[in-house]
Amino acid sequence: MSERLPYLFHQYFNKTATPQERDELMQLINEPGSETEVYGLMEEVFKSHQFEEDPFPAGARERMLDMALAGYAKADSDNNIVPIKKRSNALIYAAAAIAVLAISFGLYQYRLRKNDEALAANKAHQDVKPGGNKAILTLANGAKIELNDAQNGKLGQQGNTSVVKLANGSLAYVPGGSTTGAPMINTMSTPRGGQYQLQLPDGTAVMLNSESSISYPTAFTGKARNVTVTGEAYFEVAKNKKMPFIVSYGSQKVEVLGTHFDIRAYQEQPGKTTLLEGSVKISNGNEKQILVPGQQAVFNANSKKFDIKTVDTEDIVAWKNGLFLFDNTDLDQVMLELSRWYDIDVVYKGPKPTLNFTGEVKKSNNLSKAFKILESTGGVKFTIEGKTVTVEKK
User: What sections of the protein cross the membrane (predicted)?
Assistant: First the structure.
C-alpha cells in the first residue's frame, strides 16, 4: 500500500484534508487488501490519544470494521446483531470507508469533549467565588457568634435587649424595657470576603463593608448615641434631636441628629466621611467642619485641616449596592478593593503596570469574570492560583 494512505488518513482525522484529499482517501480505502493497514491506522490514532476510558465497548471497534469489510456479521444474542447478506466489493469497501471515518470522527469528538471537560474543571478550580453576608458578633461577655451560620430568630439577651437575626439575614436589637446599670457593649466585625447589615437599638441602620467593625451599646442612654467603627460603614441614622448620634474613628468624630452618610476608615488610607442626606459635623481635635449633601471630608495631616470636595455619592456607596465603581482608579486601589471582597493575596510579576480603570464590576461575579472585564481594557494580565493572584503587564 502506498504511503499516501497514512498521510490522507491523518489529514482527515485532524480535519485538515482538502476535498480532493478526502476523495483520494475514499478510493484508497476502497481498494482490496486495505483492511490490515486500515486496522493499524485506527489503532495508531486511538493509542496516540491517552483517553481516560475507551468510548466504545470492548471489541466494538473491531466488530464494526469487520462487519463493514466482510459484509456480514455473526449473530450475537447479547447485542442483538442480525446477520446481513454479502454485498459487492464496491459496496463493502465503501461501507468500510464510512465505518473507519465514522469511528475516527467519534474518537475525535470524544477527545474534544474530554479536553473541554478538563479545561472547564481546571477553570472552575482556578477561580474564586465572591464574598457574601459574613460577620462575627462579639457579646458583652466575650462570647462570639458566627452570624452567617446562626439560625434566624433570637440569638441572645443583652440586659433588657434581645439580639435577633431577622429573616433577611440582618441583625437587630429589640429593646424590652427600661435600661439599668452600665451599658453592655457589642461588636460586629466582618472578615475579608464579608459584609453585613445591622439595626441598632434606636432603629439606626448600618451596613458594614469587608474587613470592618462597629462597637455599640445594646441600649442607648445618656446624652448621646456613641459608636466606634473601623474599615467602612454606611449609616442611615434614626432621628432623635435630644440625643445626637456620634461615630468615632481614629481621632475623628462625626456628629449627626439624623442623616445618611458613609465613613471609610481603613488604616492604609486617610479617613473619609461622605454625606448623602441631611448634615453632619465632623471634628478632629479643635478642627471642625459642617458638611452638606454631596460633600466629602478628608483630614489633612500636614495642614491639620479638613479638605472638602464634592463627589458623586452614588459612586461612594456603590459597594453596598453590589457594585465596584471605578473612576480613573489606579491598579493598586482596584486590587485592594478586590482583595478584600474575594479574600485573595495579590503579587506582581515583573514591572508593575501603571494603569487606571474606569467602569463597573458586579460584586456577584466570580473573580475570573471580574478579571476578564479588567483585562479587556488592555495592558494587564491576571493569573489565579488558589487564593493567590499574580498581576503582570500584558
Answer: 90-110
Q: Are residues 184 and 101 in the same domain?
A: no
Looking at residue 4, its pLDDT comes to 82
Q: Which helix (H) or strand (E) holds 105?
A: helix 89-125
C-alpha count within 13 angstroms, C-beta hemisphere, residue 116: 6
- Please give the residue range of the domain that contains residue 208: 132-316
My answer on whether 205 and 344 are in the same domain is no
- Tell me which of 294, 316, 338 is where a domain ends: 316
With the C-alpha atoms ordered 369, 370, 376, 381, is the resulting torsion angle positive or negative? negative
pLDDT at 34 over 80: no
Per the structure, how many domains does the chain have? 3
What is the per-residue pLDDT for 16?
80
Q: For 292-358, give the DSSP string.
A: -TTEEEEEETTTTEEEEEE--HHHHTGGGGTEEEEEEEEHHHHHHHHHHHHT-EEEEESSPP--EEE
Are 171 and 294 in the same domain? yes
Tell me: do 208 and 259 sit in the same domain. Answer: yes
Find, among 38, 106, 108, 101, the residue nearest to 70 by Cα.
Answer: 38
Which tens digit of pLDDT belongs to each residue from 282-321?
999 999 999 999 999 999 989 999 999 999 999 999 999 9
The CATH number that applies at residue 163 is: 2.60.120.1440
Region of residue 188 (phi > 0: left; psi between -120 and 50: alpha; otherwise: beta)? beta
Global confidence as pTM:
0.69
Alpha-carbon Rg of the chain, whole angstroms?
A: 35
